[in-house]
Amino acid sequence: MSVGIYGGFGRSNLHVYRTTRPLNIIYFDGQSATLTALGTLDSQISILQGRVPLYPDYDLIYDEDQRALDLCELVKKLGIDGVVRMDAGFEVLVCDYHASRLQPLFVTNITVPGNMEEDPEGLPRDPNRQPPRGFGNVFSEQGSYEWLRSASWHYGREGGLAENRVQLDICRMVSFYDPELTSLAKSHHGRLVGNYSFVNGWGFRKGHRLLDIQPDDVNRVRSWLQTITSSTTSKENRCSGINWQAIFTTIHAQHGTRAREIGAAFEWKSGTEAERKAIITKVHELTHAILAPYLEYIVSDSDKSLTPREQTIARCSTVYTAGMDLTTLGRSEVLLYHSLNIVTERLCTWEWDLFEWSEKHTTNYWGDQPGDAKISAWLNDEEVARYRQLSEDTLSLIGWDLWTKCDRQCMFDEICAIPTWPVVYAPGLPQGGIYSAHPPKLSEDEMLDFWRPKCINRADFDRGGGRGRDPIHQFPDVPPY
């Protein structure tokens, strides 16, 4: 990332350090190092400035030097070492190298010969770019592509190991979705400036903002940060030792891949009896596969007060939390506990409704006789459409982004690139300031295509100016050797 940004022009020295002890840092989730006015910086702006303006000043978005100073003031108050954020890859801001005991290894002058001057002659200029005004050496475009390749390593792609140098302590987490932040209770959805819209898989939420956060809630978040970074073992700062990440990963694996396959089945044609039968059969098989560990066609004696529906949903939605003692959980863990139960109950209820509906049209074990032979008489396209909509609503609410794999094995000269920068669909942006550059208007199909991971090579990357960059912000071509 450093080479990709600063190695393409001017004089550049790369400083390399190593850690000598574990660093205590806080992670701002999401693309919190992406410089946009669309919400990527909201968490930092709210904590540092106390409010999030709808139309922020240019410097509030792009002055990373000042933001680094402000973040380091926060780091000093918290008594920790720094901050980690994400753009295409991950970056760590360490505020005091001496106190954090970072050891310098070497400094390399990576300046490309012939590019010593700040504005070398003979290279093309793009007046629409911010400084350095669209010039660079012969490796400028390559640097951006290699930055993306490096990021892919740290996603666990391209033969790399998924980022594990930063070990998240999920027990000590602050969430702006916390119900105690009452000023945000009804304002997470939408609130994008202009006519922006984002598309990603099943409608994964990208438009949630903190524009309405009030001073009391900002102070509450600051207090929570102080608590989770302290070394005390108070009730608010304790942890049970439960591996929450393992539980979430298990639930995602158990429900996610089947849910995606169910969603894909509902996209099949349903105009004929054979087509409807194929959909209903696939839905029946997949929902049974999910619910089989919890399903009794005849409820056991111990649960005679429950219907098969009630028993199955209860077992499915509480299997990972039924044995937990809430009194042993830390404050952040209680939020995780309730979030987990809400999500699994919604998923298990949806899966049961699909199973019960498809069972009537297939095995019909709860009916008098198998209904398969009469499927055309009472299964119509409107009925399929109703359960298709139910599935779309559920998957959109859950918001799981399963689009993290390319549809094919990439070739040796390609990268399985996951979209990393926001793409704007905004025909009516306000004029002036940071909104003065109008990105090209994209069709819905183009938006969907962008948000899908795909195999790209260097030529694909350069043609688009880099993933997520509109043409007026891409590096210009440089003269050939």
TrEMBL record:
On the tree of life, the source organism's domain of life is Eukaryota
Region described as Disordered: spans on this chain: 116-135, 462-481
Question: What protein is this chain from?
Answer: Podospora anserina S mat+ genomic DNA chromosome 5, supercontig 8
Biased composition range(s): Basic and acidic residues: 462-472
Identify the taxonomic lineage of the organism of origin.
Eukaryota, Fungi, Dikarya, Ascomycota, Pezizomycotina
Q: Which InterPro entries match?
A: YOR389W-like
Name its species: Podospora anserina (strain S / ATCC MYA-4624 / DSM 980 / FGSC 10383)
